[in-house]
Amino acid sequence: MNILSINGSPNKEGNTQNIVSAILKGTETNHHKSKTIHLYDLKINDCVACKNSHKIHLEKDCIHNDDFTNLLLPEIRNADLIIFGSPVYMGHITGKAKTMFDRFYTFILENFTIRDLENKKFISVVTSGAPSETFKDVSDYLEKWLGDFFFKMEKIKIIHEGDFLGESGQCDKPELLKKYENFGKTI
Length: 187
Ligand SMILES: Cc1cc2nc3c(=O)[nH]c(=O)nc-3n(C[C@H](O)[C@H](O)[C@H](O)COP(=O)(O)O)c2cc1C
Fold this sequence. Notes:
The protein is about 35% helix and about 20% strand.
């Protein structure tokens, strides 16, 4: 299986990606291939709701000639399982992650059917400073849009870990990483 991890945090070794990396480490047990893309390395333009967008999407994926169209889209299409990671910033996923999801408009056809994503699986990983229940709506948002409500990807797991109050990446919960490594082994 091809696994793509998309890190929506500016921290490459932050709380969110540390959990994702633990999962990816676990998946090595079953010899899956994995790749991580850090969104903050990419230049992703805002969706501008272009006229004739559905026609443009069919012809050339998107009006923007940027890293979403040229780099991320092919990786998404090539993946069997996508792990979406984001910390909570001001009560939601990061702006960069939301900008990426706005560009998912390219997967929506004129009659609201979805192309490319429907046979893919997903895991979402959200971390927050506050306890996970406080920002459960952030994980609910990802579950809703990526899963049954809209993009119809197959949900593998929705992960939300809170209480990350220290410096980003200074995870003082080694048992947490072990737990997610063990989860990765089940994939
Ligand atoms: C700009 C900014 C905004 C944040 N907003 C929130 C928030 O609204 N709620 C919350 O619980 N934590 C908030 N946090 C804390 C992060 O969500 C938390 O530390 C997270 O685990 C960081 O993940 P990372 O290390 O992967 O970047 C914020 C952190 C930053 C830097």
